[in-house]
Design brief:
Elements lengths: L8 E5 L5 H11 L6 H9 L4 E9 L5 E12 L2 E9 L8 H15 L4 E7 L3 H9 L3 E6 L10 E7 L5 H17 L2
Parallel strand pairs: 4-5
Antiparallel strand pairs: 1-2, 2-3, 3-4, 5-7, 6-7
Amino acid sequence: MILSPPFPFRLRSMQVSDIEDVMAIERESFPSTWSPAGYRHELTANHQAHYVVLEHEEAAGATRLIGYAGHWIVADEAHISTIAVAPAWREKGLGALLLLWMIYHAESRDASLVSLEVRASNEAAQSLYAGDGFVVVGRRRRYYRDTGEDALLMDLDLTRPDIREMLEEMCATLWRRLARL
């Protein structure tokens, strides 16, 4: 399934020309950031990397980049590397939209598992992931170099017998929410 969110939102593949806008959101979202060169490498040289941006159509057809996400697909596992939404657009379901895109994309590439790390203190992100079926499967001690904070390792099993039904319900609920924005 290809996700096509309701107007005025649009998902598309991240391009090198998006890096400046991505970095602006990155600086507002994380205590330490990737470098522009890191994103350039991901987009041009890492064939396992898949990145998407979320745009909002403004007046007169102009668009604004308001979020992004990425994951790597290695063998039958998708590992989420990043996800962020501009502060003014948070708590509207857009992080869930980006996460749902990565899950559907992973499934379309025959992944059987989606994994991620999340800061132990980031309860909002943990709640988002848990609401989408992820479960905590481990802890990485002092994972984040900038603070020494632990990361929780969370997984979503795409082989669950109810996964298709769960994803379709999540999508329908999210589309209703986004249509009200």
